[in-house]
Structure formats: structure tokens, C-alpha cells
Amino acid sequence: MEDHKKLISIKDIKEGMIAAADIYDRNNILLAKGQPITEPVIATLKQSYVVTSVEVYVGSDLPEKKLNDTLSFNLKTIDELEDILNSFSVDLEETFESISDVKQTDIEELRAFTRNIRDKFTATDAILRNIAFNRSTEENFYRHSTNVAAISFILGKWLGIAGKELNFLIYSAVLHDFGKTKLDKDIVEKSTKLTSNEYKIFKTHPIIGYEFIKKFPYLDPSVGYGILMHHERMDGSGYPLGLKGDEIHKFAKIIAIADLFDEISSGTYSKEVRGPFEVLNIIREESVKKLDYKYCDMFLRHMINFYIGEEVILSDKRVCKVVKVNMDNLLNPILLQGNVLIDLSNEKDIYVESFFNGVKNE
User: What is the mean pLDDT of the chain?
Assistant: First the structure.
């Protein structure tokens, strides 16, 4: 075993330690590698008869970025996070306006916006909590694009994308819906179901965005592929080209997950969504045929760690704390009410209705 990792007994675990390997309870992942160990995770481990020790990072080799993520969240309030994301939304609107004529210098606007994302979105924990838990009903097109860029950036890092390639992914995510700005607003902003002809027009927005981006000199082709293919699906049911599987560029697969997660979380999804755990469950269901399974699995295994420890309101109005989420049964987490454990899989017709007070600034 490497000297910057240490196997420690369950009784010696402390809150804030960073897992050096995925932690499993029976066959279910309890905490993903690189995530800080929380009190609910400790409580679950201490009740386990299977897990007796876990591997953690120790000493100066503790991952700096993960420490920064945790500290950044503790230092930021809900209002501060909202200000950051809203500011990005305003900047993005200005960026879209400035690149519309495609001048030689316009690429610098996009580069500056991307650098800002990489600089400001280092607090992974805080940003994802805000997007998942603290939604506003007044979010616009530019806020959605900002959220998708943030989620794509974070998922890309989880998948090992780095350097220039990560920049290209951010470019693509930022511009994934740019083509909508060239469509009739009556179609893009229509609150009722689109007619057959309107939907046909709407489905051209990835092509419009792709053709527009090709005009930028020296921009990597992968940026355009992510834009063009972000509505393609693994089973060939997507648009505009009906591509399947490996025909779809990896940027488009990542953006598709981020796009769907933000759409469901914002309350604009086409179907009724019963609570925050159904958001995760929809991603899981879509991963079977339509979204990339491996990418979805990585996304969900990280996301459940942000749900663990959160207080939630059940459909019968009980307030509980999430202590465990089963990847194979995302709708029914294990909860703690006082000193009593509640397994929702044993509670007929009861589900998690909402988070309690959104993000808690503890």
C-alpha cells in the first residue's frame, strides 16, 4: 500500500477524513473515492457487521483539491453562490451577444468565460449542492447554460478529462444551446406542447449551433461535435442525426447528462417528478438505453455523496436525515429520524418530497 494512504479501523474514523478508495457496505457503494467522510457515513459504517476498516488519505499527500472543495463550501453562503451563478449567467448573455457576428477576436470572449469557470468553480461540493438543492423558479436560458457548463466541467474532471481537452469540453457545454438564440422566441419559450412543425424547427438548434461554431478559426472540432450531438441518444432515438453508441462524441454524452439533470432539477422536465431522489432515478433509468451508462454511473456515484447527510421532508411531512443511498434503489434511501433508522423501501407510498431548507450553511 502506498505510504500516503492508510487503512484504519472503523472506530478510529473522524469526520472530514478523505476516502482513498470507494467504501462499500455489502455490495452497495457508500462513499466514492476522494470524498470527505461525513457523520452519517460514520454512523452507517459503525452499524455494519461487514466493514471493519477503510482506506483514507493521510498527511501532506491529502488531495488538495478535495480539501479546497470542502472548505469552499463551508465559507460560502447560499446567497453568495447564487450571486456567482447569476453573475455567470449575465456574463454568458453578454458573451453570446459579442460572438454573434463572429469576428476574429471573438474567441477571446469564450476563452475568458471558460477561464472564469475553471477559476471560480473549484468548489465542486458547493456548486453542485446549489444546482441540485437550491433551485429558483425564475432561472432563464443563460442560467441553464451556465449550470450545464458547471456540471459538465465537474463530470469531465471526474472522468479524468484535463488540460486543453477540459477547456474544449467547457466551450462545448457553454455553447450547447447557442443555436436556440437563432430560432423564433415564440418556439423556444413556448410553455405548451410544440406542434409537429414547431418541434421540427426546434430540433434544428444543434445543427445551427454547430454550423455557427465552425466559423471560429482554430477552434478544435470536438467543440462542435459536442454541440451537434448533445441530443443524440445511445439507442439511436435522439436527434438531429440519429447516431448510436460510439458514434456519439464523448463531450455530447457528458453534456447530455448535465443537460437532463439540470432540466429535471429546475422543474421544467416534461414529466412530473416526485422529489429529489427521482431526479437521480431518472438519470439511472435513462442510462439503460439512452445515456452513456459508464458516465451516468460515475455521475450518480458522486452525486449520492452530496445527498448523504442532507435533511429531507417526507411525503408524510416527517423530517429526516439521509444516511445511505443504494445505487440499485435510488428512490428509497435509508434515513435517520432521531435515533430511528427508516428504510423507505419498507415504507409503503412514502417518498422524499423535498430537501429541508435547501442547502444548509453549517
Answer: 82
> How much of the chain exceeds pLDDT 90, in percent?
40
Question: Does 172 map to a domain?
Answer: yes
CA distances from 93 to 98, 128, 137, 146, 171 (A): 9, 22, 19, 10, 14
93 with 27, same domain: the answer is no
Q: What is the pLDDT of residues 114-156, one digit of tens each?
A: 887 887 776 666 677 777 776 665 667 888 898 999 999 999 9
The model's pLDDT over 4-52, given as tens digits with 9 standing for 90+, comes to: 788 888 878 887 788 888 777 666 667 767 777 877 677 777 766 567 7
Specify the pLDDT at position 76: 46
Whether 61 has a pLDDT exceeding 70, the answer reads no
Q: Are residues 33 and 75 in the same domain?
A: no
Assess whether 19 and 101 both reside in one domain: no
Residue 71 and residue 41 in one domain: no
Based on the fold, state whether residues 127 and 248 are members of the same structural domain. Answer: yes
User: Does one domain contain both 76 and 162?
Assistant: yes
50 and 89 assigned to the same domain = no
Quote the domain boundaries for residue 319: 311-355
Domain for residue 168, yes or no?
Answer: yes
Instruction: Please tell me whether residues 43 and 148 are part of one structural domain.
Output: no
Predicted confidence at residue 41, as pLDDT, reads 74
Check if the beta carbon of residue 173 is closer than 8 Å to that of residue 152.
yes
pTM value > 0.85: no
